[in-house]
Amino acid sequence: MRRKAVKLIVGGLALLAASGCGFQLRGSNAIPYRSIHVDAPRDSGAARQLASALRSRGIVLPENARDADAVLKLSEEKKTRTILSLSGGGRVREYRLNYSLSYRLTDKDGNEVHPASVIQSSRDFTYDDNQYLAKTAEESFLYRDLQDDAVQQIIRRLASASSR
Fold it and tell me: Among 92, 68, 69, which residue's Cα sits nearest to residue 81?
């Protein structure tokens, strides 16, 4: 019984300390547009993911830019891989995966809300020729993760457009 009371007090103090420091869950950012036209190349994975994220927030994605409150243009999505290190035998040991996504946001009148910007991110990963299939799958997963991060950054930036 005494142990339970101590746990309860310690838990309460931890909650009190967390609330006192201003800690707050991030929550869902409100995007100030009811409809956004996403203008992107057809084969863009980021555009599909962004469209899904916007729909999940209740935003309508019209086919025509004239019917939208804003236009989000994704102009370039680029994936590159560079060698970080080699083994003594000249085999690749580490790669750096780079991902960049260019975008800009305009309102329905064509005024620039968010100027052309580039989101860049990278991840390092070890490579082993003996595990080719596993490392290929890992590389795909890491690129998908980089793309997820870029889409979430765009969503947060769209939400911050209302505070400008």
Answer: 92
User: Would you place residue 164 in the very low, low, confident or very high pLDDT band (cuts 50, 70, 90)?
Assistant: very low
pLDDT tens-digit series, residues 123-142: 999 999 899 999 999 999 99
Cα 161 from Cα 121, distance rounded (Å): 22
Domain ranges of the chain: 31-163
Calculate ∠ Cα 57-41-95, nearest 5°.
90
Question: Which CATH number is 31-163's, of 3.30.160.150, 3.40.50.2300, 3.40.50.300, 3.40.91.80?
Answer: 3.30.160.150
Tokens of 136: 């290929």
Characterize the bridge pairing of strands 70-86 and 92-107: antiparallel
Please, are residues 54 and 31 in contact by the beta-carbon 8 Å criterion?
yes
